[in-house]
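Q: I have two molecules that I believe assemble together. Could you output structure tokens for the complex as a whole instead of separate predictions?
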Amino acid sequence: MIQHSASELLAALHAGEITSEALTSAYLRAIRERDPRVKAFLHVDEAGALERARAVDARRRRGEPLGVLAGLPVAVKDVLCTKGLPTTCGSKMLANFRPPYDATVIAKLRAADGVLIGKTNMDEFAMGSSTENSAFQVTRNPWDLERVPGGSSGGSAAAVAAGLAPLALGSDTGGSVRQPASFCGIAGLKPSYGRVSRYGLVAYASSLDQVGPFAHDVAGLALLLEVIAGHDPLDSTSVDKPVPAYGRSLDEPLTSLTVGVPREYFGGGLDPEVEQAVRGALKEYEALGATLKEVSLPTSPHAVAAYYLVATAEASSNLARYDGVQYGHRAKDVDAAAVEEHGRLAAMYGRTRGEGFGDEVKRRIMLGTYALSSGYKDAYYLKALKVRRLIKDDFDRAFAACDVVAGPTAPTPAFNAGEKTDDPLAMYLGDIYTISANLAGLCAVSVPCGFTKGGLPVGLQLQAAPFEEEKLLRSARRYERATDWHTRRALL
Amino acid sequence: MTPDQVRWVAHLARLELSAAELAAMTRQLTSIVDYVAQLQAVNTDGVEPMAHALPVHNVFRDDEPRPSLPVAEALANAPDRQGDFYGVPAVLE
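A: Yes, here they are, computed for all two components at once.
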């Protein structure tokens, strides 16, 4: 049962072949058996999930209308506030935090009769590309337990890939849904900025963060996107545009499709086996009648530099809230010299944050603080914002000539645990293909497009103009229907 | 970057760093700052900074009173609760 896609399970639920309780129990059993090896979950809400599933089944028996998820289990990244359930963001700072409210996407999930099965592991405060920056555990790649699942939403990606949930939510600030989807051989979507409410998504970089779905296939992404998308009065950056029925239009034929291929995406640093799989996918598009067109994104070599200034500047401001006063960790003792120099309150802040944050979070707060500090702001932060504009202009020009831009999601397949932990810059450079979509506000998807000789999944990334999710998903679906990569499952 | 610069930025960020952290941070930030310095080579004359992916405007709602988070729930996660208040170290001696 747990090897099926979300749409297959939904059909079985509607046909009365399975109950939500039986399905939820099967996933809970899989979590008990497999998660000690994968370590995708930080918290499993066994009682809550079963209660919810039984309630959905009861309503189904009475013939009452059900929400579109109709009792499907969903795993949720631990960066989304869930009322009364732990929400740690993978940080010691929030180890004991239980939010007093649900994020809007969680409220929508519940309203659609999704069964929240548990909270998944992540890089602390969504800062990382391997899920090794969690304060609690290191999640493993279900295809090779020695390797990372990607990040920062590595727990959610690994949960779906390992058959511990048919659907999951993550968040994507610079590729944190798409890159782990690519590493774990599943599909992942970053919606356009403003498509999904950020209310209750613990902030990392507010102008870049979006919540996005994971599934085995594009149909699953469309289903979950339809649930979470839409305007929210509680997030003034969510856009008031109608939400199309993404699932319904998915299989409608595209009258024409021009796939843009940026020459900058196939340069140095790209693993040859990844390149081969992605070039194979492009050939497949051609065979399906799409037109391939070379495009240029001349500013893209500077995207990593621009991203790590913009994102960290915003993070340094957002994470100022963790001061040991309203919630979260507070240091028990203070440093006498710090009290002498800065006063008792500032000494408490400094010690609290020094104890509560891990290395990567500290690094990014420091870089962002530096980039915004007096004397450096123009050279770093403002310069990065100007380069951000040039990156967006590149895409505007590209989308005038093509429908979607295609390329690899990540330059390499999943790397070994521990391989990049001592070299932050090497880790950052792995985000080269994904971060532009966040800087420019685009929607982008990663779908499985092959495997290396060693059996590691490779992801194809498609990017489309803001609010072109329908076109994006239909383009991805067209490839998916012609291939069977999305039906492969990790053997555990 | 020099250790003194890093110490100053750590103070601005209210981050207490150990001596070992300060040394590692100086080394790592230097390599990252060297890397991002490549942006200086990009011609951005006349380019408007882009702080946001959307044209963001102020969004207003009607100023109607409505229930807010109950005090007990707002304080439930506080590390130091004193009555209906958050407790902090004394700032006035």
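A: One point stands out. Chain A is about 40% helix and 15% strand.
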